[in-house]
Amino acid sequence: MTGTLAERQAELVAALVAGGPAPAGFAAGPLAAARAALRRKRAGEVARHWPLLAVGLGAAWPSTFADWAAERPTAGSLRDGWDLARALRERDALPPGGAEELAVREAGLRYDGRRAPRPRRLPAVARAGGAVAVQIAGRVRLVRPAARPPAHVGGRYS
User: Which keywords appear in this protein's UniProt record, sorted alphabetically (predicted)?
Assistant: First the structure.
């Protein structure tokens, strides 16, 4: 093994959370298991900050998050969820609850994708997936919920 301890630690962290190659001397199986466990933990933390997004994706949440997070180091749970919601919006795959959550967050906070979110000072309107949120004097209100697909009732279509 070559390199300083700090360099070797950085390689291990990159392999675990940012899709980096396995460092020399680490078995692939245990490293993959640790990587998967850390992604599950990270997905749980993001779901605590973005519950409507996670619930809206349902059983697809773990795999959707894992696929998105595979090559991205964490920026913190709030920002990870925000970045994922924006990515899903770009692909028209954002569920209605997630759209409402995103609209409310974007109306109340300014986030450029690089720095931590900051409160907005001026009135703002944000839209996501048909949802509209308004922020005035520091208070955010969802003024229009996101459209939801019609509910299917019974076993037959009329």
Answer: Membrane, Transmembrane, Transmembrane helix
Range of the domain at 111: 5-143
Q: Which of 78, 138, 155 is nearest to 111 (CA)?
A: 78
**Cβ neighbours of residue 81 closer than 8 Å, sequence gap 6 or more:** 46, 47, 49, 50, 53
Only one residue has tokens 């595979």, namely 70
Rounded Cα–Cα distance for residues 105 and 129 (Å)? 14
Whether residue 150 lies inside any domain: the answer is: no
Q: Looking at the domain assignment, is residue 148 inside a domain?
A: no
* pTM assigned to the model: 0.82
44-59 pLDDT, tens digit per residue, is 999 999 999 999 999 9
Give helix then strand counts, H and E, for the chain.
6, 5
With H, G, I as helix, E, B as strand and everything else as coil, classify residue 46. Answer: helix
DSSP alpha helices (H): ranges in 18-150? Answer: 28-49, 51-57, 61-69, 77-90, 96-108
Sign of CA dihedral 28, 29, 33, 36: positive
